[in-house]
């Protein structure tokens, strides 16, 4: 079943799908980690691939930038292509000085400023959270691999450039335990809950808004390798 955004055929996607935002990162993941990767989608150059990891089927699909874009791909992956486990793999900014560059954040929950999460909840403020089984698996595997990680509340913001400089754009969120900021997790968790599938967001912290420390290009690549291998191990065992 093709969609306006995806020309894959039934069965082209595995039930486990990694979701980087960047199409070129999707290509890099497929070519670097997959056994026998094959391109299954290239509509609008939002690339999707399927292959195997340690002998088990897995896919990767670029989701674009921001929650509206991710919402399209996740909705279609679940409802048109049968995805059951979706793991976002990306980078994030740090909102807590205890989180250092190269550290991995497992988004236990996702605060957001997006209207996409306010849909259909009436007077309630919905709290999007990760699948506990995926979260526990990721934490256990990160421990076993010796990866420095933090599990906590992530901010999924629709705004990249705030009018207020630095941390001022995030008000009191860091004081309430929000440890990182990215642009997709809350929508992913909301759609996963709506359609009864599993989801988790795993991010590498690449720049800290408090200390202004940034990761080098070389360190970014090495850190992404660790994060992607962690996500793949979790995905194929879900």
Percentage of β-strand residues: 25-35%
Structural class label: alpha/beta
Count of discrete domains: 1
Largest sheet: 5 strands, mixed, barrel
Q: Low-confidence spans: pLDDT under 50, at least 5 residues?
A: none
Number of strands: 9
Question: How would you sum up the global shape?
Answer: globular
What's the name of the CATH homologous superfamily? Answer: Nucleoside phosphorylase domain
Rg, nearest Å? 17 Å
Brief overview, please?
With 238 residues, the chain is an alpha/beta fold. Helices cover 29% and strands 28% of the residues. It contains 5 helices and 9 strands, in the order E-H-E-E-E-H-E-E-H-E-E-H-E-H.
Molecular structure report:
This is Purine nucleoside phosphorylase DeoD-type. It is an enzyme of class 2 (transferase). Belongs to the PNP/UDP phosphorylase family. Catalyzes the reversible phosphorolytic breakdown of the N-glycosidic bond in the beta-(deoxy)ribonucleoside molecules, with the formation of the corresponding free purine bases and pentose-1-phosphate. The protein is an alpha/beta fold. It has a single domain, classed as Rossmann fold. It contains five helices and nine strands. It has a five-stranded mixed barrel with strand order 5-8-7-6-9. It is globular, with a radius of gyration of 17 Å. The chain starts with 15 loop residues before the first strand and ends with a helix. The model has no long low-confidence stretch (mean pLDDT 94).
